[in-house]
Structure prediction request, 209 residues.
Amino acid sequence: MNKDLEFFIKKFNVSRETIEKLNIYNDFLLENNKLLNLIGKTTENHIFLRHFTDSAQIYDLIEDKSEIVDIGSGAGFPGVIIKILMDSKKVDGNVVLIDKSPKKCKFLDDLSNKLGLKLKIQNVRLEDYKFSKISTIVSRAFKKAIETIDILFKSNYKIRTVILMKGKTYQHELEEAKKKYTFDLEKFRSITSDESYILKISNIKLSTT
Prediction:
């Protein structure tokens, strides 16, 4: 057993059946990455750490799992991993994956069938999606924070929580967003990179100053 897989099992306490699903995901991702460029080539040998563990670490930050929307889902991170964990823990809830690329949506559809997951896959531009007011939004390696909040605020100003997975530019992105919006913020250091942070944003309002 490689150390990345061992760390995942220890950290998230998952069953053998869940690990089997993740191994299928790993192989299917590598098979399709040649054509679709779903993940960086340099991360292909460390998918469990760089992508699976990275995505799974936000699971416990999502308090309301009734409706989770993964925007710019791409290879399925973090949405597919969240749904796999929900199923393993017998937690009910809808997970929606949004991506504007038809080819990536086809990959996600094939993946969900292969893994036996019930996912809602939407091949639309984020600007055109109609959000539920109870949605929790998750995003990894997508747009800048200000761009994401702009789109979400226009779509539905009652969105409860947005969880953004960010790299070393996170502080600059926060400062930029605070010029236009006020919001409550919780910040968590990533367990997969010292330079990365998870931003949990709620109560978003236009700034009055």
Q: What stands out?
A: The first strand starts at residue 67 and ends at 71. The mean pLDDT is 94.
